Structures are given as structure tokens and as C-alpha cells.
Amino acid sequence: MNAPRAHSSQPHPVFCTIVPPHLLDQVSRNSDDLLSRPARRTLEQDATQRTRRQITTVRHGLLAGAPVAPDIDPAERTPQRTISDADNKERLPGEEIRAEGSEPVQDASVNRAYAGLGATFELYLSVYDRYSIDGAGLPLDATVHYGEEYANAFWDGERMVFGDGDGEIFRDFTLPVDVIGHELTHGVTQYSANLEYYGQSGALNESVSDVFGALIKQHSLGQSAQEADWLIGSGLFTDRVEGAALRSMKAPGTAYDDDVLGKDPQPATMEDYVSTGADNGGVHINSGIPNHAFYQLAVDLGGNAWERAGQIWYDTLTGGSLQPDTDFAAFAAATTEAASARYGDGSDEHEAVRKCWSEVGVTTE
């Protein structure tokens, strides 16, 4: 485990995308300009947004510490959603189209984003008693139709942003609810564990978003751990792609195998850990290892994954024991301690957590 140090309570917003840069880079090298042009444009936009986020953070300093949840009657803790339309321009936030409580509009992307924000808010509130992603009722803002053929979705530290996809490889990014849950969970991490977006802590940052994105999808569909597909971004690829999703928590490395995209590079165990300087030290690649550990835990415990398995992960993320540079071993140890604290030392849950990390080659002691 990492040496103890003072935990920063100041959330550091980062720019996080659902489609990893290594995948877009692969597409950008394709000889077919119909495929490569949108990928190059998306990479350029992502680089611009990433730089803008860094400049904003430096200029204004880290955001204030996570606010304390106000003493509000649970019945009054409702979401405050605003969906805007960028009209395929590279502008934020765009024109407001739908506000909290208003009726559905004709634009399906707006309605899906509105519903996805609501599904995310509902899981965190009803299951974990968390009032929005910051724990204090933060309004949930999103922008759809961002950019021209923009093939990604991102959390920029303040809002969710969705592209329409290129129509060749990617569909509209509001389609999978787990994509919405994934990106908003970066906000939960931002306001809790504040995991640095590099190396193993960055892979954990990505994995936590995959975990809760999957749980939001399962919760909204009423699926048990056994019934769920454990795919992240299922339905995002067009029919021309040989692949089921961006990632598979059940079987990392099998989500796609395509002539244009290449093969899913995610490892399932530490034996195949990828050492790379790309993608912030492989944050979208090595996240497959903690992803698979959680899948093993959820299936082993059975029932609804958002209950015992999800509770242990949530307790770990928000319990204050994680450092910004937490690695896999430290996170594994923290989940073991969280399981013991909630369910008892030697309980089925405690032993299942130890087992799931052992199965992916991460030691908890």
C-alpha cells in the first residue's frame, strides 16, 4: 500500500472521455477518409478540451472542497437537470432545450440524456443515499449534438457532453445509459476519492466509472448480476463493427475484434498488465483488471450487484481512506477493509472481496 499522507479534500476536475484515445488513434490511421477524418477531428477536439480544462484549473485553482449535504427532507431531494443543444458546433453549453420537470421534446438525444441523468441520480440517491454526484444536490447539466461527427462523450469537470458519432463506427453517444452513468461517476470520484488520472490510480478512476455505469444500467433495467451483460457501451457501435461494446467487465479483451478498430487490448489479470505511457499510462486499458475483480465479486455474491458488491465499492470510494495516487493493491486492501467494516470480518462478503482480487492477481495484504 502507499505510504499514508494527508488526503486532499479539494476535488481536481479532469477531462475524461468514454472512448479511449488509443482506439480513436487506431481509426485515425485508416486509409478510408470517411473513417479517419472524424476520428482525427475528435482527437483534436479532445486535446483542445483537455488543455482548456487544465488552464481553467490552474487559473482558478482547485475547486472548493466537496460541499456538505444540506439538511433537506429526503422527499425534496430531487434532480435539477438541464439539457442544452450545441447544434453540432464546438460550443458549450449551447442552447437550453429541456429543463427539470418539463415535458419530453421531439429531439430523442435530449430526452435520452435527460433520462440518463435521472437514472444516475436515482441510483446514487435511492441505493447509496447520495444527493447528486457531489453529495449536496449539484445540478446535472448536459449538452448534446456537440461538434461535427464528434465520436465521443466526456465529463469536463462541470458537465456531460455528447457527440452524435460519425455514423460509420459510432452511433449517438446518448444511446447507452451506462455511458451517461460512467461519465457522471467521474464527478462522484472528483468529489470523493479524487483519484489522479494517471497510471493505476487513473485506471481505478476509469474502472469505478465503469462499475457504477454498469450498476446504473442494471438498476434501471432491474437486472441481477447473473442476468446482466456487463458490457460498457453496448449499442454504441454501428453494424459494420465486429464488436459488442467498448469494454467487457465479464471478459476484458473480448469486447471487439475489428479490422478498423483492432482488438480490445484490456487485460483481465495482472499477468497481462500493460505498461505504457500512452492514454495517461493506460487508464482505459488496465482498468480491465479492477473491472474484472468487481464482476467476479458481484457474480459470486449474486442477487443485485448494486446492493452488496456496489455498496462495498461505494464505501471504499467515499470513505476517505483512498489517496489520490492509490494503486490497485491499496484499493484492493481498502475494499477488503470496507467489506469487513460493513459486513463483518470473515463474512461471506469479506471473503468474496479477498477472493475476487486474488483471481485477478492483486494482493490485498
TrEMBL record:
Q: Which GO terms describe its cellular component?
A: extracellular region
What are the recorded Gene Ontology BP terms? Answer: proteolysis
Going by the UniProt record, its keywords in alphabetical order are: Hydrolase, Metal-binding, Metalloprotease, Protease, Secreted, Zinc
Class of the enzyme per the UniProt entry, highest EC level: hydrolase
Which GO molecular-function terms appear in the entry? metal ion binding; metalloendopeptidase activity
**Name of a matching Pfam family:** Peptidase_M4_C
Peptidase M4 domain location is 106-190
- Protein's cellular compartments: Secreted
State its Enzyme Commission number(s): 3.4.24.-
Q: Which residues form the Peptidase M4 C-terminal domain?
A: 193-362
Give the main location.
Answer: secreted
What cofactor is this protein dependent on?
A: Zn(2+)
Q: Which residues form the active site?
A: 183, 284
The keyword Phosphoprotein is annotated on this UniProt entry = no
The answer, when asked if Phosphoprotein is one of the entry's keywords, is no
Region span, Disordered: 30-104
Where along the chain is composition biased (Basic and acidic residues)?
A: 30-49, 74-101
Q: Which family does it belong to?
A: Belongs to the peptidase M4 family.
Outline what the protein does. Answer: Extracellular zinc metalloprotease.
What is the protein named?
A: Neutral metalloproteinase
